[in-house]
Amino acid sequence: MTTRNAVGFSNALEVTLFGDEGTMELSCERPDNIHLIRFNHEQKTRDKTSLEVPVTYKRNQLEDFIDLINGLTPEDCPTFYDGYENQKVLHQILENTRITSEHEVIK
Fold first, then answer.
1. Which of 4, 80, 16 is nearest to 48 (CA)?
2. pTM
3. How far is the C-alpha of 97 from the C-alpha of 42, rounded, in Å?
4. Under a CB-based contact definition with an 8 Å cutoff, are residues 33 and 53 in contact?
5. In the chain, which residue ranges form alpha helices assigned H by DSSP?
6. Are 72 and 60 in contact (CB under 8 A)?
7. How many whole angstroms separate alpha carbon 17 and alpha carbon 26?
8. Which among 37, 43, 52, 101 has most CB atoms closer than 10 A?
9. Tens of pLDDT along 69-79?
């Protein structure tokens, strides 16, 4: 797991989801697109597709943040408790990696 806070990475939150059928990549730097990567078994190649996010699902993080400051909470907006629960999951993943990995874990 890596985090970064550096000049040039203004809103560098990137998420990669790995699944049995392929991988999905999304980035706050490119909020209008989601990338899907699937393995083409016939051609033994990786196929990467870019999908446009429908307008109904687009969110403006700054507007959400201002709404939160003003006491307005969008229905699908995560809470601090959600963040805390997420951190517990990430912590357990790291702990399991330390226990089960044959590789050195850098602290």
1. 16
2. 0.48
3. 34
4. yes
5. 61-69, 80-100
6. no
7. 9
8. 37
9. 888 877 777 77
